[in-house]
Amino acid sequence: MSGQNQGTYTDDSIDLKQLFFMLLRQWKIIVACVVLALLLALLYLRITSPTYSVNGLIQVEDNKNMSTALLGDVANLMEVQSPAQTEVELIKSRFVLSKVIENLNLDISIQSLDNTFSNRLFKRTQYQTTHSPSQVIMSNSQGLALHIRQLKVPAYLLNQPLQLHFIDNENYELALPTGEIVKGRVGQPVAQMVSGGLLQLNINKALGVAGSNFSISQIALQTMVDRINAQLSAAEKGKLTGIISVNYTGSDKVLITNTLNEILKVYLEQNITRKSAESQNTLAFLDKQLPELKAQLETSENRFNQFREKNDTIDVTKESELLLTQNVELETRRIELEQKRAELGAKYTNDFPLMKEVTDQLAAIAQRSKELNQRLNRLPEVQRQYLQLYRDVQINTELYTSLLNSYQQLKIAKAGQIGNAHVVDPAILPLKPVQPKPLMVLILSIFLGGFGGVLLALLRNMLSSGVKDAENIEAQTSLPVYATLAHSPILDKFRSVRSKTLPLLALEDHEDLTLESLRSLRTVLYFAQKNAKNNVVLISGPAPEIGKSFICANLATILAQTGKIVLLIDADMRRGHMHKYFNADPGNGLADYLSGSKDLAARDIIQDTPVKGLSFVSKGSTPANPSELLLNPAFESFLHEISEQYDHVIIDSPPLLAVTDGIIISKYTGLNLLVARYGKTPIKEITLCMSRLQHSGQNVHGIVLNDVPQGALQSEGYSYTYKYRSKV
């Protein structure tokens, strides 16, 4: 493949099967994330206070006003707003909620500083706060009880936590943010001037509080109203039903139940007060008019009686009687309209049509009365005076009697006023919390944990720079991948047991999938060595811990099992551990032979192994200059000598990028193989090894991809090897 093709090779396709097996290989990460999410969910359920919800129903009756009645059927064609929408805003208004706060002392906050995170985690002590019209009580399951009847602070201390420390069960100290200390005694009200104003505190009872610390505060009215509104919701059920559903949430089920019932109570009281305002205004008008009318009646009766005593009996004509009757009727009608205008004035302005109509009627009555008075003035003097006095008595009597009847009726109506709203369902104590829902939280945690685990696995796979695709290696390097070796689960069992020896997989399980891949490598080497200059094979890699020693030991064993005579050389004189595979002595090895320190011959450093046909040369004593020893002509002579005695010579060398030993050895070998570990060895390290060998005049003949997960081996098409075990 050309260099151009190497640089332009890309593969942006997504293989779902490959993706699935990649996630399957990282199942431990996903399971760990799920377990962690479950633990966090359990911790959340443990420390989170449950949230309860209570509700009540209010029915608002739609009393059509006079304007709707005047419009008649036309009102049905217009968009009519439900009266419940107005009542919803009234329920949440500061006018209603401020009275609720005052009635239940909700502006007094008490918190125990001993109620720490660990206490909530282990549920050692349960704290509860009770608000009532007379006091606020904090108590716990250990017998502690603190009763505060009054707390009033200057404006600058509103919403500020004040530290309350009990010296004993009777005496306490209150620390202010300014550093001032207020001392007091249980049962004795405290009123003390502090910077900014007067502070009043009345703790009327305290039990088991010696040494305890509390944080108390007076919450500003608007702040408390906002808090209640954040937990309070009200809405009409359906459209134009007049049924309002009021909901209130909180962590204290007793407190939210009492608070919502108090809200409903205060709302109904203001509703009744608002609806009786019209009657109250009319009563105020009558309270002012009745004494005046009574005085006028008494005055008119006295004047009439004095006139009759002076003039005896007066002959009144029919015309005079008619004028008198009409005048009385007009005056009575005038007073009735005045009363009606007072009633309408409580609801409407002077520009309202009904108000204008009443005003016009009063003007017409005034004009008619003027005409009647002019006719009366034309009568004889005695008759005229008699009629005027008699008229005054009649009018004042009828007016006084009529207004007195109206006054009594309004008093009765006001006493029976119920407003246009009433509670259908009051709030009752909830049985179970609405949040958190344990089952939902656990299911969600499993889902989020699994999702997070998948994302972490994908991110880990994306950030991993190691090679994972044999085709990509071949495309990037133009070198053939001789074999892909699967990860063997048998080796995991041996790694879990600490031992001074390393297992030879070729002797442990003859049908392991990894050995099948090594056998395919053996076949490739058979054909590759036909064109090689000798039968010496160098197996190296870019970095440590990629499995090259494992491949050398097992490949040599497999070659020997076919009847070949094989020599395995551990040329890693720094950190070689090949002797552990054969439980051999590392002494008298390659380093000792090349250094000449022990006067050894080539046959003296060759050891037999338990595998028939396989001999082994250990690394020997650790030298100070391994690279210089490999440059010794004795090493070349040694390889030349043994290559004629063995069918295959396999050399395990140190990493190429760490030291130059492997590059020196490659000058004397017929085949040079590089080992790359799946997911660990970057493609850049492979190309860098190739470059270093090329600079020294040598080439890499092939690559072995090691430790490929079996799932990846099946999903990514590295080989077509199947498990085909012998039948027992």
Automatic annotation (TrEMBL):
The EC designation for this entry is 2.7.10.2
Domain (AAA) ranges? 546-660
Keywords attached to this Swiss-Prot or TrEMBL record, sorted alphabetically, are: ATP-binding, Cell inner membrane, Cell membrane, Coiled coil, Kinase, Membrane, Nucleotide-binding, Transferase, Transmembrane, Transmembrane helix, Tyrosine-protein kinase
Cross-referenced InterPro entries, in alphabetical order?
AAA_dom (IPR025669), Bact_polysacc_biosynth/exp (IPR050445), GNVR (IPR032807), LPS_length_determ_N (IPR003856), P-loop_NTPase (IPR027417), Wzc-like_C (IPR005702)
Please write the reaction equations for the catalytic activity of this protein. L-tyrosyl-[protein] + ATP = O-phospho-L-tyrosyl-[protein] + ADP + H(+)
Q: Which residues form the Tyrosine-protein kinase G-rich domain?
A: 382-462
Membrane topology, as annotated, equals: Multi-pass membrane protein
What family is reported?
Answer: Belongs to the etk/wzc family.
Write the protein's name.
Answer: Polysaccharide biosynthesis tyrosine autokinase
Q: Which organism is it from?
A: Alkanindiges illinoisensis
The taxonomic lineage of its organism, from the top, reads: Bacteria, Pseudomonadati, Pseudomonadota, Gammaproteobacteria, Moraxellales
